[in-house]
UniProtKB/TrEMBL annotation:
Recorded GO MF terms: transferase activity
Protein name: Gamma-glutamyltransferase
Species classification: Bacteria, Bacillati, Bacillota, Bacilli, Bacillales
Natural source organism: Metabacillus indicus (Bacillus indicus)
PANTHER family, per the entry: GAMMA-GLUTAMYLTRANSPEPTIDASE (AFU_ORTHOLOGUE AFUA_4G13580)
Pfam families listed in its UniProt record: G_glu_transpept (PF01019)
Amino acid sequence: MQFDYLYHPYPSERQTVFSKKGMVATSQPLAAQAGLDILKKGGNAIDAAIATAAALTVLEPTSNGIGGDAFALVWTNGSLYGLNASGPAPSSLSIDAVKAKGHTEMPVYGVTPITVPGAPSAWAKLSKRFGRLSLKEVLAPAISYAEEGYPLTPILGKYWSLAYEKFKGTLSGPEFDAWFETFAPDHRAPAIGEVWRSPGHAATLKEIAETEGESFYRGNLADKISSFIGEQGGYLSKEDLASYEAEWVDPISVRYKGYDVWEIPPNGQGLVALLGLNIVKGFDIREKDSLETYHKQIEAMKLAFTDGKAYITDPKEMKITTEELLSDAYGEQRRAEIKEHAVEPSAYEPVKGGTVYLAAADGEGNMVSFIQSNYMGFGSGVVIPGTGISMQNRGHDFSLDETHPNALKPGKKTYHTIIPGFLTKGNDAVGPFGVMGGYMQPQGHMQVVMNTIDFGLHPQAALDAPRWQWMKGKKVLVEPHFPTHLAQALARKGHQIQVAVDKGAFGRGQIIWRDPETGVLSGGTESRADGVVASW
């Protein structure tokens, strides 16, 4: 696509990368290279995405794991496909069962908030339907890094250390022992530049590769997972694992100024990003760094989140359809509610996420937007002994209030934060994009899309532009390089502006765009992380 700004208007040491034959962008350099190696061996973009995702469970375990969930948008042969690899609550996990343990809300850590993990099923499903190489070949780089080890990168080392310091003071008991044995083998977090290896990860990935995921859900690994969780008083059973498969879904979209912006439908929160864009598309927005632009973006996102938190849950139990929420009439109705000053929406408290996002493309036109997560960093803090399988804690988002739209029920999928994005124009793919990071994700999606379409920024500039994040009420976080005069002007409109020094609060994104006429790929990666665009 064409960019108005081929120079870089924001402070960064990185520039947009251009290539022709293939590209992989993600937050960990070795993982991106693993995907590129698969492309060079004859794999396609789907193979590269799987290889990168599997490698990230080893190379960035602070954000995702084998026991996590995943979502994907895949463009191939002129069509876009969606995959929902989030899992439901175990069949024995109920509000009464949790309350009987003395909880008044879903716990964050331990075996209780563990739902059925979907990531291994996502790898197997994508490989079987669209892959060109065997799963053994595709998972080989991840297995190699787990066996041989790798040195920690700076951002990875920072978050690993923070997690260890938190866990050593809060997590105790046999259900957490394997986490410390796996991720703090010397009774400390590995240092930046220090080599960490995990034979358990390697053995598990080999078994997943050899059985095309079957062992994880209906074999030896399923036995190990269900036995350990049962011994520790958890709910995830062998039957829950055996009955699970990732689900192919129809992506949802809104038309935004000549482009179609695509997301995975609920139970994911991609709907929130589309709701926000559906509101702002009716405004005459021309200038990026202006008071009115930021004010309208923030107010639109408040309304989008208010609707998202009110309605998004397992799609089988939603009280309103996505079509109704994304209609032009509803967008116009919500747009009319945005006034000159900040308003107080229905409040809730966002939590920090723990997620990896990757984008992959090949020279044949295949493109993948893929996201994978354990949630809140290392997830539940539970590792299945000897396997390296770090379990997510997605059940934490369930409500124990029976009247809440996202109330816990056996077999129900919870509101899910991770979302891959994709952009098309007419019948052509523009490409995959994403910004991971808990409730920052739909806000990042809106900002990246508008940076690209409204303001003509090239991929790296679109990612590097200063971000804001609405938190709750009128509170809005901005980055240190956010224009000071605009922050002050927003405050005069009633926004409670707070400068956040932690770049991790604003997510980590990747973009790959494809020129439909030349096939040239252009990619950007997150300057707030250890990210890289690997290309050829």
